[in-house]
Amino acid sequence: MRKRILFVLTMVLGWMNTIAAEQPPIRISTNETDLILSVAPNGRLYQGYLGKRLSNESDVANFSYYAPAGLGGSNTSRGWETYPGSGAEDYFEPAFAITHNDGNMTTVLTYVSSEIEKIDNNVTQTIIYLKDKVYPIDVTLHYISYGKENVIKSWSEIKHSGKKPVTIWRYASNMLYFENARYFLTEFSGDWAKEVNMSSQELQFGKKIIDTKLGARAAMHTYPFFELGLDGIPRENEGEVLLGTLGWTGNFQFTFEVDNAGNLRVISGINPYASMYELKPNEIFKTPEFIFTLSSCGTGKASRDIHDWARQYQLKDGKGDRLTLLNNWEATYFNFDEKKLEGLMKEAESLGVDMFLLDDGWFANKYPRENDRAGLGDWEVNRSKLPNGIPHLVKSAAEAGVKFGIWIEPEMVNPKSELLEKHPEWAIRLPNRETYYFRNQLVLDLSNPVVQDYVFGVVDKIMIENPNIAYFKWDCNSPITNVYSPYLKDKQNQLYIDHVRGVYNVFERVKEKYPNVPMMLCSGGGARCDYEALKYFTEFWCSDNTDPIERLYIQWGYSHFFPVKSMAAHVTSWNKDTSIKFRTDVAMMCKLGFDINLKEMDEKELSYCQNAVANYNRMKPVILDGDFYRLVSPYEANHTAVMHVSKTKEKAVLYAYDIHPRYGEKLLPVKLQGLEPSKNYKVEEINLMPGTTSRLGENDKIYSGDYLMKVGLKAFTNGQINSRIIEITQQ
Ligand code: GLA
């Protein structure tokens, strides 16, 4: 049972400066990090420190007020204000801005009180109440710290008690300050089929903004996460680095601003673009959660901390198992019937996977879903393809010995659909301009509660008719185009935010009614991958690009923020120049699935795949719940290697891939990580093609963890597009 001890640090004593000055600094800590906030003599709240956890409690008092060099001067109010409003003496980007009813655009927030709530031995919530002395505005800052995982999550809540609505036009989730010699940003950018490309740059004076205006399919070009290297480019095993991510499935924005004193400010939150939000009296505007971890030994550790935190606290069924599957998308596209699907179900069983997943194309009758130009929105089974309906398919799957999952895209509509004929006002589109269609479809207006009911109803109807459905793949293929909500009428400025809130309302209802159904988040590949959506989804589809070489980079990128159990990876026919072994060995490092016509394979290949599935099932606890180490980066070598190590350090799996080694290239051994130095481990190559034997020099031998980590294994070869999976077992 959750033990809650609530104690009030300071009671509501207003914003009198004398009292504020007595308020001791507020310490928000994990086992390794301290964020110290302090109330200055002017009654306002400032960031005193963000860095490695201080060893002595008595040192915290030193941060009663901290003015960084170059800003303070004689006027102490120019400091690192925790949640600065617009229009005061700080001349950089504010975290918060509001236009009051009299037209005044300034806000100055002063400290009122704070509370510390110990949720359990590991998790603590700090709540800080702020208010404006002149206008009835209340802002509450929330920080939840996860001790062991070294993660802090923060958001703010904005409220006013005026008589008339006010307009808020900046509403950051969080703002952080850094005082270092140099700052380096690693960002992730991409597009369809080329997700999460990593690039680093030094931040100089002025602003660098990473944001999206896509509304839905919001992370198509950039992702809601970043890495910040303090004093050096983010590196895997050394250096101080902050990893930050925003839980928002819509327009997000990160602003990095180096100021006149060479300090860095990082503002994270919803992108305020076209979103001046009208806040009614006493309505609470809750910002999304900003989640961060600070590591003093590189990104590898920071990622492992976020993985642990996600599995423990955020990801849907984070501690649970994951289903292996066979998907029919690439094997059939829209061209299938009952018989074909039943054949695939049997193939799924023979492969040894847990489930058959039916993709796009199973629905709509008046405008049958034969391609992506029609039928979206009409979620009745297509009677000519599937005359006996979904219940029959669920039954056939059970008879074949596998579970049954299904694809939906319920937030979208094709213009050629009965749904849009019946409810033309449900789509987001402009009444007075030519309509632009992205993938021949429109986004339904989820700001409208009636549309939310409809979308929930799509899932509910399928589940009521087929209670044994074991899985949903939930797609979202279009950004918001033709930005106009017929429902919001003269409040168009709320569309981007209310739409996303509507989406969450549906996710919440689905989770509440069907808490145990695993779900894959998909968005034309990987354009939805944030930690708010992942409260409702067990995994996400990383990319439609399943070329294994591309996937090595894509999976490397996502692994910085997401545990592999949330990263769906399928073996397909993309890049047939690579062997089935290479394709499978690449998918095996994440949540394994297949999306391939097994008939394309010869006997040896099929038997290899069956063996690989069996190996995967055997090693799932290590792969899905172990610690993940990125050993050799594909960005820096012609090879790449990663490994999983079980929490007990008894078992590990090493994956070594040769991409395009140069002729006669010098091959360096792969140094392992995370093992017990004093224990011995047996090294054994697995996932071998039938009829081949391992050519790994160290195969079948025993080495100490110390040796494996200091000397390493000669796991790379000079072969082109070659892979090895090596099982490492403590003796
Ligand atoms: C998106 C998904 C694919 C597939 C198709 C179906 O592109 O990313 O995996 O489901 O839609 O139309």
CATH class category name of the domain at 2-314: Mainly Beta
Q: Are there runs of 5+ residues with pLDDT below 50, and where?
A: 1-19
Please report the total strand number as a whole number. 36
Shape designation: globular
Integer-rounded radius of gyration: 27 Å
Structural class: alpha+beta
User: What's the mean pLDDT score?
Assistant: 95
Annotated CATH topology of the domain at 2-314: Beta-galactosidase, Chain A, domain 5
* CATH homologous superfamily assignment of the domain at 2-314: alpha-galactosidase from lactobacil brevis
**Main sheet characteristics:** 11 strands, antiparallel
Bound molecules: alpha-D-galactopyranose
Count of DSSP H/I helices: 12
Distance between the termini: 38 Å
Give the amount of beta strand, in percent: 25-35%
CATH architectural designation of the domain at 2-314: Distorted Sandwich
Report helical residue fraction: 10-25%
Explain how this protein is built:
- The protein is of the alpha+beta class.
- Helices cover about 20% and strands about 30% of the residues.
- It is built from twelve helices and 36 strands.
- Strands 1, 6, 7, 8, 9, 11, 12, 14, 15, 19 and 20 form an eleven-stranded antiparallel beta sheet that branches.
- Helix 4 runs parallel beside helix 5 (about 390-400), helix 9 runs parallel beside helix 10 and helix 10 (about 580-585) runs parallel beside helix 11.
- The longest helix has 23 residues, at about 605-625.
- It starts with a strand and ends with a strand.
- The structure holds alpha-D-galactopyranose (GLA).
